Amino acid sequence: xxxxxxxxxxxxxxxxxxxxxxxxxxxxxxxxxxxxxxxxxxxxxxxxxxxxxxxxxxxxxxxxxxxxxxxxxxxxxxxxxxxxxxxxxxxxxxxxxxxxxxxxxxxxxxxxxxxxxxxxxxxxxxxxxxxxxxxxxxxxxxxxxxxxxxxxxxxxxxxxxxxxxxxxxxxxxxxxxxxxxxxxxxxxxxxx
Length: 192
Fold this sequence. Notes:
By secondary structure, the protein is of the alpha/beta class. It has helices spanning 39-45, 61-70, 111-118, 164-173, 187-191, and strands spanning 2-5, 8-11, 24-26, 50-52, 76-78, 101-103, 127-129, 153-155. The strands form two sheets. The protein has a six-stranded parallel β-sheet with strand order 3-4-5-6-7-8, with no helix packed on it.
């Protein structure tokens, strides 16, 4: 609004601030227990591609789903050292195809729960780090149909896997069509 101030004309201009484009969010060891909801949070999360919430107090997969719902561009998520445990009650199963890296060190997850509930929601996952979870078995349970052709890196450090053959059997779950096993598929030899 133009106004007169000491004989001079002053024009005041109001500029609407746009949301800044936050792409990397690191909130390691901040005491966070819930992700929250709301327009402000949604406005910030829409451009986030990397998020580190390790060493917090998040104990519900519902909070993780809330974060993923608010962050459609999220590619990397670290939830290490949050006591997440088993994932229950996510229905219908959402899909987050943009998430490519998931770090779950020391989260108390179980292999059975990951395969039956979490991994099917992440079809674009290429890196999974599930070390320090006291996993003892990597066996698929009857009825688990999860497979991935995109998985490239699986970190199992500091677990108690008893039989190496279980790690080898993961090849069926994380099969790459370009690397066919000639013993199981003789025609693959001809394609090489």
